[in-house]
């Protein structure tokens, strides 16, 4: 384990169109743009087995949600490496989703489902047993991001089995 001080900093996400993704995060989710950077002439890292960074064009934007969450959006264009046919699903190895805690999942779910740039891919699910009290729903943007909305409060049954606790947003 890393023994120095550590804290969450950001999630980085590759997007096909930086402006579209920034607009979605700002308009639909309430993020604020901190900085936009680029274009850069290469991707800035050397992938194992390669001799140098992949040439291409990189633009990025860093956004923040309140005082709780940083995200880095990365647009890679003019690539020399083959692009996969599709992003992995959340259940596939390497797959993932972005989850936002909301204070009213019914209202937030209705608002997000009404947008033309999202598709609801699950109804609101109410968990049982150790996670009773947790409610969630999945959505997908037109450009492939899988987004989860979640609502829960302290006092779920799992808390009787451990001293560890899930982190809550500061407003909760």
UniProtKB/TrEMBL annotation:
PROSITE patterns (UniProt xref): VOC
Keywords: Metal-binding
GO molecular function: metal ion binding; methylmalonyl-CoA epimerase activity
Every VOC domain range: 7-152
Superkingdom of source: Bacteria
Species in which this protein is naturally found: Glutamicibacter mishrai
Protein name: VOC domain-containing protein
Single GO biological process annotation from the record: L-methylmalonyl-CoA metabolic process
